Amino acid sequence: MEKQNTKILDFFRPSKEVKAKDPTDEVWTDPPLPPAIEASDSAVGAAVSVSDDDECPELLKPHQPDLDLILTQTLANRTLKFQAKWFKDFSWLHFDERLCKVLCYTCVSASRKKLFGTCSGSFVDTFIRSGFCNWKKALEKFHAHQKSKRHAITVEKINALKQTDVHAQIETQIKDNQILAQKALVKIITSLRYLAEEGCAIRGKDASEGNFKKLLSLRSEDDANLANWLKRTTNYTSVEIQNEILLIMRNAALREICQDINEQSVQFAVIVDGTQDIRGIEQEAICIRYVGSDLDVEEDLIGLYEINATTGVAVATMLKYVLLRLQLSITNLHGQTYDRASNMSGSNLGCQDEVKKVQPLAKYVH
Ligand SMILES: [Zn+2]
Q1: Within 13 Å and on the Cβ side, how many CA atoms surround 154?
Q2: CA-to-CA separations, 225 to 94, 178, 232, 237, 255, in angstroms, rounded
Q3: CA 19 – ligand 1 centroid, Å
Q4: Distance from the CA of 313 to the center of ligand 1, in angstroms?
Q5: Could you say which DSSP state residue 128 is in?
Q6: CA–CA separation, 270 vs 344, rounded Å?
Q7: What pLDDT was estimated at residue 38?
Q8: In the chain, what are the domain boundaries?
Q9: Interval 168-185: pLDDT, tens
Q10: Ligand 1: centre distance to CA 166 (Å)
Q11: How much is the pLDDT for 124?
């Protein structure tokens, strides 16, 4: 869970990929494409249905029914039955009702999932294809199969595949959550943009009230995803996130304005005026006047800037610094407009005079 002050841009970065072991990494010789293992419809608790389909969606468990369903083996002098404890001792034993024989569920599953190529041999024929029902040699053959190298590697590959499935599920879950979060974030951003465009206050007396929270609450009535998102502890609506989003939007707007000036208008003028804020600190508002791409005169407020002194030199220094940050060349400044206060309009050390020392063509207009 991210902290509330997590950077908003972190959200759009792709999640780290969960790397799973590729079960086909190992080179192995050619197992066969076995016949389907099918649990009959009547088999109570049948947990296997490995069909002829290419995809085996899940690894379930072997079919190990009541012993009554398993045929006995009749010899000359006795009758042999399948022993219940064999299912316990060899958990991979799977009874195929169609064949009336037992198979190795693990090896057949691996073959059905095409973890191997094709091959033939007694190993394949007995426990993967034809089945086994010679109970007289049951223990001997079961042990031999279980100890075989092929069975051991098959178990390893199947386990790796299960692990892969888990990783895939986790990855899918992460992506789903990310999509829902991004949809909610878009609603948050567009709500802020609307309020900013309309010049509405974002917050009220404290962060828990105000237009932003009310607008989101209203929009969540028609959006269940947003409603759920807002119930989260970390929902990206904190004051810090609001300010970060507004800053991103402000920078994007500034970049667009400056690009328009440099590419379309080239020449521009500035309008500067200031006043003290509630803290008593001087704030200078800077507007830029230029000709837009549609040949209409544009006049955009680009920001409020704090200064420590109100002298003409201080204001002019601040103005030159702002133009430099915006990559607007002062050589293209052809007009400056201020009030008639001496610090701004004065011909000696006034702001307009200080600017003219750098750009004499910047005509001062009251
Ligand atoms: Zn096996």
Answers
A1: 29
A2: 46, 12, 11, 15, 33
A3: 27
A4: 88
A5: I
A6: 13
A7: 41
A8: 37-162, 249-365
A9: 888 999 999 999 999 999
A10: 23
A11: 64
| DSSP, residue by residue, 45-100 | T---EE-SSS------------GGGSPPEE-SS-EE---HHHHHH-TTEEEETTTT
* Token pair 């521009």: residue: 268
The residues placing their C-beta within 5 Å of ligand 1, an ion, are 104, 106-107, 151
Distance 151 CA to ligand 1 centre (A): 4
Ligand 1 centre from 104 Cα, in Å? 5
- pLDDT band of residue 225 (cuts 50, 70, 90) is very high
Q: Are 318 and 284 in contact (CB under 8 A)?
A: yes
Q: What is the pLDDT of residues 48-95, one digit of tens each?
A: 333 444 443 444 788 999 888 888 888 888 889 999 999 999 999 999
Q: Does 347 score more than 60 pLDDT?
A: yes
User: How many angstroms separate the alpha carbon of residue 146 from the centre of ligand 1?
Assistant: 6
Q: How far is the CA of 200 from the centre of ligand 1 (A)?
A: 71
Task: Please spell the DSSP secondary structure of 240-265, one letter per residue.
Answer: HHHHHHHHHHHHHHHHHHHHHIIIII
- 187-204 pLDDT per residue, tens: 999 999 999 999 999 998
pTM, entire model: 0.54
Ligand 1 centre to CA of 123 (Å) is 9
- Measured in Å, residue 131 CA sits from the centre of ligand 1 at 12
CA of 187 to the centre of ligand 1 (A): 54
How far lies 182's CA from each of 215, 239, 349, in Å? 18, 19, 53
The model's confidence at residue 27, banded by pLDDT at 50, 70 and 90, is very low
User: What's the CA-to-centroid distance between 68 and ligand 1, angstroms?
Assistant: 24
Residue with tokens 């590959």: 157
Distance in Å, CA 127 to ligand 1 centroid: 7
d(CA 79, CA 165): 44
**In the CATH hierarchy, which fold is given to the domain comprising 249-365?**
Nucleotidyltransferase; domain 5 (3.30.420)
